[in-house]
């Protein structure tokens, strides 16, 4: 029996429904929609929308195409809506990423239409009680307090915590919002996710993103997962990975734990947390020793491999076995497998990035791929899996403390470019900032305070931080503070601030973990299913989401809330200068078009709303193997126009599925490593030699394109008259006509130039990756040989390294603790723990501990245990005694919150919003430690002690 | 013995279904691969599959009893025992014992008092005894009828009555069975405690058996009146059967009717089987007991109606008791 | 006529529990907190040899639940799906004792007496109430089969590990996969029957 989907629509009927015919029904439905606004001042009970069970089966179903809002794989979803209620969720078999598949979270997506535990209306903590506010009053009070703080302490005393749950448009607007306010104190969870990847990888070869795609992993012959557990974190990626395996690929999993992914591997390598660099160098030792490297690739496209070769000599097998714990035999076997089985890809996630040497870890992985010559080919690359659904987009739009949208940085030229795009007077924008240099740093052009350390921005002595005053007010806009380490300080900082504002569908930990009685505001934002816009998956594809349902309760879309605040602050005219505002809702498509005009660096320019919607309507025309459309309206294009999608939308660039692929023309998604760091270093040429993308008219390396270069090449006259005007004095990044890019590509050249990838990143504290023992290391014997950094100033904050590593905690805290994900939950977990279908599956916070360690402590599976932190905190969790972790190492999931050091916070939540499951937050006991470049927090290698409760 | 053959039968029927879960695949798939893979050296899929079949438990996020067990065949084997043995045996018992007694009665006729009724009534049971008896009797009969419906109704009633009626009937049976159970247990305890002193076996009870209690009206046993005390050997046997199997049936019944115990499947199924076996035995004895009291033994029923028995009946059926009472001047006559 | 079965490919199952929440999603109208019609079990958890498998009602051809049920509330559809009538169910729990897979679930944890109406996987085929009726939705959940769709758990499976459909069709899919994995001898270990 063939059972095919017969129609996108469930059985529809024109026959009378509840005594109404269809026409009358539609009429009454629209009336009902209007009634929601009117009903908004009624009680929450009154506002509950119709539940699915109240909808007759044959009510007409509208099928909406949307994208799962959990992880960055970007799974397509068919949402069935009847009478305005989300009643069904059908598999999107034709979606080119997931082919209908979903993990626990994706399969429970429809629960977003219930939202039982959501924050229902704006609230304020007054005298220890939650009080309901109207939106206007809430905006008035929050806005005024921000203005007062601005007056007294300057714009930098307001912190804008953003979210990877924003759509691209919202993420872009939020970054712009902070710019309009006049601060760089804006950041989001990418800081504690892949910031080290973005910095490390972009500085190696140009862009800090996944170089290939999930689908392309099908073509790999070897895959190495290091610090990545897609079975729990990116389950649908496993569809492609396992198909690759079934086609003969070998899977190597490198992890401290025998993860679910390790269970599917051909080779599992245990490494001690925090020893990624010695592990990679250990592999390279065998590769260089045996001449397994791809010398042609290195000669043509890699700079500085000789330095690495020298360094690697120090990591001989015995040394690696001593530091990492992997045997010589296994290291050799893995190296040989990688060298002989090509193309091979490397996948890494938080296990690699969340270290105080995270940026160097990511560079080390890249160097391994460069040595193997695995870059720029199908089946190869560094497949860096991002976390949240739109963390790639939010990063690209510069929702970060150190850059403007498109990685333009914070230099004056960058500001001028964006002022040009915004059509605003640079001086006006500059005037919004604190004008005085602070500790020698200019607030407008210097890095702000990171997401990982906003609490230090509150608590640190204000004379030691490079801004006028401490942070006195923070917007926690879609971010869970339980994802930040050092829980006690987080609480103290929440207590100390003048005002705490949570903008989120849920109250979140920031709303409940403090000990305040006043000055906390909760503003209900809606989810991505209650608005629309584009979202960037990890593979750089953009996907359009359609609005599924109207915002639940009194919640509002993020961009509407931004508009309301901007209006209160009197910056709405500038903020929305070229964006149409309908009532209070800025038009999403106008926002997309605005960033299309400015995001030249990474090719976010070709993805117009029209093209993205066309892709959305034609999921089924894209081939799941190649991601390309063999026919149909998107013929020849790659699904989602993965950036860089060069030029204007009219230029019709098909998107770039595989970065740096010299085997293809630039106009067909080809390219090469980016010339980002000049043309020479130490007198040595760093442009590519004899390697160039297919069809390039310059048959060698070349620098990035500028107006002058076009003139030198004699290509200037290929520009139209208007383009010439716009391009004069500009380069490929700042020419907002797109002319320079168009002409370069016309001649087969990539606008950003053609250089070598660099193993030496001379602008970083460690110019090549060096092993440094974790700050909290159990291996005191290695500290002298592999010490951490001296304490130093990073961005605006003093940052400790040596001070911490000097102390020996290993005696009292002998267990290594690392943290990670569970498939059922995501991020801080507030959303997923409030979803009963998911919460039911993981009801208790736990710690994984090896049977040997448990036996030593008299702990049995299921016992309550204390986890003690060397910094003093102590949490109570359940013990899961399991051989997944080796003796001496423990693991905790980080999604739990709602209990703080043994005390339930349930009573602090507004009524009816306590998640179904609460538990101790792992980060309460996670310790100090920040990446020296990006301020990534160290959550993957610390120490603890476990004792029976 | 039969468990073993059942197991192989079960294997034939159910294992293919289990196999369709895909675990059975791939015995040597990986071993042949020659890869240096420690994982597959350590455990191959055959071992895994063997463990699953053996009922090994794994990890699961599902809450509940034994959720980590993928396959547990014990319950199903129990089901086979129940359906293939207990159900037919119970049917046969009810019909067979009843029919056998009917036949016996038709051939033998009632056991008459050889001297006829004296008209003098001797106190045999106190009021409390009567209460205990009738509460126990009523609850037992209610349990038997509802229990029979639960066990056999599906085969003998359900096909012939409407769906709604059947649903009501079976639901009623289950509910009544659940709630009468405790009444039975309480009256059973009282009965056992109160009557046990009268029920100890004596040497003369052996003789009683040798002449089948003197109820047979033909052949070599005709006219025999064996010695017996307050209770004759047959009654003692009934008492002890009820005591022992009453204990079994009560305990297993409680296991079945208290879901909060969260018993593993093995225990629940064992309880179900013990409950059934005990029921069969108690039902058989009950039928005999009712036959004896109502029609077979002339004057017997009167004891449990008024508590008094005819003096001649006492002499004929419980001579030692009567003699003892008489010797001690303990006879109480009805006014 | 089709003979519906589930098949879980352990080489693909990653214990993501997508099938479990998919089931909740499809059948939310009938099942609340505490009832999981489907579960994923991982053997050798955290050790080499770890394998996960998704299990629910297997819609057995000789269903033990059906055989043991004193109320005779079970029936088999033309597609070989084992369903039950909650109106007739008496909550005795015998099916729970007899089922080798632990499929039957009971909503109430009464201290005494009936366990409430049994609930189990319906292969997303509803129940004896009229197709798409209010009653069917509240008692049994979705009826995707009547809509021409397969159970949502299998349709939403992240890695296409859980297959649902006619035994012949899914066994062929599985056979092809096994053959492609280079182990043709490692088919089911027996010839899959459709009976």
From TrEMBL, chain A:
Location, primary (coarse class): other
UniProt keyword Membrane, yes or no: no
InterPro entries: Asp_de-COase-like_dom_sf (IPR009010), MoPterin_dinucl-bd_dom (IPR006657), Mopterin_OxRdtase (IPR006656), Mopterin_OxRdtase_4Fe-4S_dom (IPR006963), MopterinOxRdtase_cofactor_BS (IPR027467), TAT_signal (IPR006311)
Positions of the 4Fe-4S Mo/W bis-MGD-type domain: 61-117
Cofactors that this protein relies on: Mo-bis(molybdopterin guanine dinucleotide); [4Fe-4S] cluster
UniProtKB keywords: 4Fe-4S, Iron, Iron-sulfur, Metal-binding, Molybdenum, Oxidoreductase, Signal
Subcellular location(s) of the protein: Cell envelope
UniProt xrefs under SUPFAM superfamilies: ADC-like (SSF50692), Formate dehydrogenase/DMSO reductase, domains 1-3 (SSF53706)
Keyword tRNA-binding in annotation: no
Family, similarity comment: Belongs to the prokaryotic molybdopterin-containing oxidoreductase family.
Stated name of the protein: Formate dehydrogenase subunit alpha
Source organism per UniProt: Shewanella schlegeliana
UniProtKB/TrEMBL annotation, chain B:
Organism domain of life: Bacteria
Keyword annotations of the record: Cell membrane, Electron transport, Heme, Iron, Membrane, Metal-binding, Signal, Transmembrane, Transmembrane helix, Transport
Signal peptide as annotated in the record: 1-31
Subcellular location: Cell membrane
One Pfam family recorded for the sequence: Ni_hydr_CYTB
Transport in keyword set: yes
Main location: membrane
Residue ranges of every copy of the Cytochrome b561 bacterial/Ni-hydrogenase domain listed in the record: 125-299
Transmembrane segments: 85-107, 128-152, 179-196, 237-258, 270-292
Names of required cofactors: heme
Membrane topology of the entry: Multi-pass membrane protein
Keyword Transport: yes
Family: Belongs to the formate dehydrogenase gamma subunit family.
Entry protein name: Formate dehydrogenase subunit gamma
Organism expressing this protein natively: Shewanella schlegeliana
TrEMBL record, chain C:
Family annotation (PROSITE patterns): 4FE4S_FER_1, 4FE4S_FER_2
One of the Pfam families matching this protein, by short name: Fer4_11
InterPro entries membership: 4Fe4S_Fe-S-bd (IPR017896), 4Fe4S_Fe_S_CS (IPR017900), ET_IronSulfur_Cluster-Binding (IPR050954)
Keywords annotated in UniProt: 4Fe-4S, Iron, Iron-sulfur, Metal-binding
Keyword Transcription regulation: no
Residue ranges constituting the 4Fe-4S ferredoxin-type domain according to the UniProt record: 4-34, 49-79, 80-109
Keyword Transcription: no
Name of the protein: 4Fe-4S dicluster domain-containing protein
Organism: Shewanella schlegeliana
């Amino acid at each position: 029996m063939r059972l095919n989907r017969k129609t996108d629509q469930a059985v529809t009927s024109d026959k009378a429904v509840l005594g109404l015919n269809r026409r009358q029904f539609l009429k009454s439905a629209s009336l009902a929609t209007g009634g929601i606004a009117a009903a908004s001042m009624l009680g929450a009970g009154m506002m509950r929308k119709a539940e699915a069970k109240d909808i007759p089966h044959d009510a007409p179903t509208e099928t909406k195409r949307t994208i799962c809002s959990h992880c960055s794989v970007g799974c397509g979803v068919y949402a069935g809506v009847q009478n305005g209620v989300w009643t069904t969720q059908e598999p999107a078999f034709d979606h080119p990423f997931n082919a209908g598949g979903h993990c626990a979270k994706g399969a429970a997506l429809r629960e977003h239409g219930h939202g039982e535990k959501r924050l229902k209306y704006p609230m304020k903590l007054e005298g220890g009680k939650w009080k309901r506010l109207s939106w206007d009053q809430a905006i008035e009070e929050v806005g005024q307090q921000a203005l007062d703080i601005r007056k007294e302490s300057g714009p930098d005393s307001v912190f804008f915590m953003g979210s990877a749950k924003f759509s691209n448009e919202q993420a872009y607007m939020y970054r712009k919002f902070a710019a309009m306010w006049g601060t760089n104190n804006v950041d989001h969870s990418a800081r504690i996710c892949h910031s080290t990847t973005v910095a490390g990888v972009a500085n190696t070869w140009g862009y800090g993103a996944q170089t290939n795609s999930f689908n392309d992993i099908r073509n790999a012959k070897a895959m190495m997962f290091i610090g990545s557990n897609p079975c729990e974190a990116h389950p649908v990626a496993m569809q492609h990975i396992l198909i690759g395996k079934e086609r003969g690929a070998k899977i190597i999993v490198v992890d401290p734990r025998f993860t679910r992914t390790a269970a599917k591997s051909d080779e599992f390598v245990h490494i001690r947390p925090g020893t990624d660099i010695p592990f990679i160098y250990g592999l390279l030792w065998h590769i260089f020793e045996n001449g397994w490297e791809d010398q042609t690739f290195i000669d043509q496209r890699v700079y500085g491999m000789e330095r690495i070769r020298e360094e690697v000599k120090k990591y001989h097998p015995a040394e690696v076995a001593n530091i990492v714990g992997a045997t010589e035999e296994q290291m050799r076997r893995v190296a040989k497998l990688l060298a002989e089985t090509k193309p091979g890809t490397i996948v890494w996630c938080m296990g690699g990035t969340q270290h105080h040497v995270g940026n160097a870890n990511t560079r080390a992985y890249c160097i391994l791929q460069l040595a193997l010559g695995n870059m720029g080919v199908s089946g190869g690359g560094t497949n860096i899996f991002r976390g949240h659904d739109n963390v790639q987009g939010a990063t690209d739009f510069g929702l970060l403390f150190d850059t403007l949208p498109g990685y333009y940085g914070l230099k004056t030229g960058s500001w001028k470019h964006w002022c040009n795009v915004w059509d605003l007077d640079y001086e006006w924008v500059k005037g919004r900032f604190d004008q005085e240099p602070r500790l020698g740093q200019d607030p407008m052009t210097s890095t702000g305070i990171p997401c990982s350390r906003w609490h230090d921005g509150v608590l640190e002595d204000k004379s030691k931080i490079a801004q006028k005053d401490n942070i006195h007010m923070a917007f926690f806009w879609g971010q869970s503070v339980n994802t930040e380490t050092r829980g006690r300080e987080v609480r103290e900082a929440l207590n100390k601030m003048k005002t705490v504002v949570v903008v989120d569908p849920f109250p979140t930990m920031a709303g409940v973990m403090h000990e305040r009685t006043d000055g906390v505001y909760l503003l209900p934002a809606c989810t991505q299913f209650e608005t629309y816009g584009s979202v960037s998956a990890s593979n750089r594809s953009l996907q359009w989401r359609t609005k599924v349902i109207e915002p639940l309760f009194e919640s509002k879309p993020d961009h509407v809330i931004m508009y309301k605040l901007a209006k209160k602050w009197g910056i709405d005219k500038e903020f929305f200068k070229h964006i149409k505002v309908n009532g209070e809702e800025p038009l999403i498509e106008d926002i997309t078009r605005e960033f299309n005009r400015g995001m030249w660096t990474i090719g976010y320019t070709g993805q117009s709303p029209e093209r993205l919607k066309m892709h959305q309507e034609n999921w089924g025309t894209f081939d799941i193997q190649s991601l390309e459309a063999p026919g149909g309206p998107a013929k020849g294009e790659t699904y989602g126009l993965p950036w860089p999608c060069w030029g204007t939308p009219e230029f019709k660039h098909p998107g770039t599925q595989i970065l740096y692929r010299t085997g293809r023309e630039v106009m067909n998604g080809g390219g090469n490593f980016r010339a980002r760091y000049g043309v020479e270093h130490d007198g040595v040429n760093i442009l590519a030699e004899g390697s160039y993308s297919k069809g390039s008219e310059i048959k060698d390396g070349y620098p990035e394109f500028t107006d002058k270069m076009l003139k030198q090449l004699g290509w200037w006259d290929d520009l139209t008259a208007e383009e010439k005007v716009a391009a004069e004095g500009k380069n490929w990044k700042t020419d907002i006509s797109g002319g320079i890019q168009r002409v370069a590509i016309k001649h087969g050249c990539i606008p950003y130039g053609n250089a070598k990838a660099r193993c030496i990143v001379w602008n970083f504290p460690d110019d090549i990756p060096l092993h440094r023992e974790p700050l909290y290391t159990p291996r005191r014997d290695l500290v002298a040989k592999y010490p951490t950094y001296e304490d130093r100033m990073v961005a605006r904050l003093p940052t400790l390294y040596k001070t911490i590593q000097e102390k020996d905690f290993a005696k009292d805290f002998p267990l290594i603790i690392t943290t990670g994900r569970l498939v059922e939950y995501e991020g801080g977990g507030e959303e997923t723990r409030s979803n009963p279908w998911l919460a039911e599956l993981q009801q208790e916070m736990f710690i994984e501990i090896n049977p040997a360690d448990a036996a030593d402590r008299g702990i049995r599976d299921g016992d309550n245990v204390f986890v003690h932190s060397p910094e003093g905190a102590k949490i109570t969790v359940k013990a899961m005694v399991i051989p997944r972790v080796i003796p001496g190492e423990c693991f905790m999931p980080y999604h739990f919150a709602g209990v703080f050091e043994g005390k339930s916070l349930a009573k602090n939540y507004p009524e009816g919003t306590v998640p179904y499951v609460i538990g101790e937050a792992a980060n309460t006991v996670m310790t100090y430690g920040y990446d020296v470049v990006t301020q990534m927090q160290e959550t993957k290698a610390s120490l603890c002690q476990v004792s029976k409760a | 013995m039969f468990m073993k053959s059942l197991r192989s039968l079960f294997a034939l029927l159910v294992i293919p279904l289990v196999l369709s879960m895909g675990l059975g695949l791939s015995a040597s798939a990986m071993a042949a691969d020659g890869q240096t893979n420690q994982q597959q050296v350590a455990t191959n899929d055959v071992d895994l599959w063997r463990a699953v079949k053996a009922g090994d438990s794994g990890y699961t996020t599902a809450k509940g009893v034994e959720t980590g067990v993928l396959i547990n065949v014990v319950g199903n084997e129990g089901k086979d025992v129940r359906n293939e043995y207990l159900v037919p045996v119970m049917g046969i018992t009810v019909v067979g014992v009843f029919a056998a007694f009917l036949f016996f009665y038709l051939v033998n006729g009632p056991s008459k008092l050889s001297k006829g009724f004296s008209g003098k009534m001797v106190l045999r049971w106190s009021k409390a005894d009567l209460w205990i008896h009738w509460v126990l009797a009523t609850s037992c009969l209610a349990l038997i009828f509802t229990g029979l419906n639960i066990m056999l109704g599906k085969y003998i009633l359900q096909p012939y009555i409407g769906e709604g009626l059947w649903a009501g009937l079976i639901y009623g049976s289950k509910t009544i069975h659940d709630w009468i159970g405790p009444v039975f247990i309480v009256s059973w305890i009282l009965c056992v405690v109160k009557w046990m002193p009268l029920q100890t076996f004596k040497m003369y009870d052996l003789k009683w058996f040798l002449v089948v209690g003197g109820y047979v009206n033909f052949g070599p046993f005709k006219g025999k009146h064996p010695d017996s005390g307050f209770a004759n050997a047959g009654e003692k046997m009934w008492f002890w059967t009820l005591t022992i199997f009453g204990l079994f049936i009560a305990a297993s019944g409680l296991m079945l009717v208290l879901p909060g115990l969260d018993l593993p499947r093995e225990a629940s199924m064992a309880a179900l089987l013990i409950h059934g076996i005990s029921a069969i035995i108690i039902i058989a004895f009950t039928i005999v007991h009712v036959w004896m009291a109502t029609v077979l033994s002339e004057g017997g029923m009167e004891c449990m109606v008024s508590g008094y028995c005819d003096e001649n009946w006492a002499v004929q059926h419980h001579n030692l008791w009567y003699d003892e009472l008489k010797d001690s001047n303990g006879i109480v006559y009805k006014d | 006529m089709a003979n519906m079965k589930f098949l879980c490919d352990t080489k693909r199952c990653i214990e993501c529990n997508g099938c479990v929440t998919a089931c909740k999603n499809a059948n939310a109208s009938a099942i609340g907190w505490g009832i999981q019609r489907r579960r994923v079990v991982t053997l050798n958890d955290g050790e080499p040899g770890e394998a996960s498998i998704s299990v629910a009602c297997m819609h057995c051809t000789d269903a033990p639940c059906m055989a043991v049920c004193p109320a005779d509330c079970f029936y088999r559809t033309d597609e070989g799906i084992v369903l039950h009538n909650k109106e007739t169910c008496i909550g005795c729990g015998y099916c729970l004792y007899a089922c080798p897979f632990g499929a039957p679930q009971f909503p109430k944890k009464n201290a005494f007496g009936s366990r409430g109406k049994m609930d189990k996987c319906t292969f997303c085929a509803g129940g004896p109430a009229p197709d798409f009726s209010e009653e069917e939705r509240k008692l049994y959940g979705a009826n995707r089969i009547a809509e021409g769709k397969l159970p949502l758990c299998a349709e939403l499976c992240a890695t296409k590990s859980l297959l649902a459909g006619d035994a012949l069709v899914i066994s062929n899919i599985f056979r092809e996969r096994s053959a492609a994995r280079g182990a043709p001898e490692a088919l089911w270990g027996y010839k899959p029957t459709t009976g």
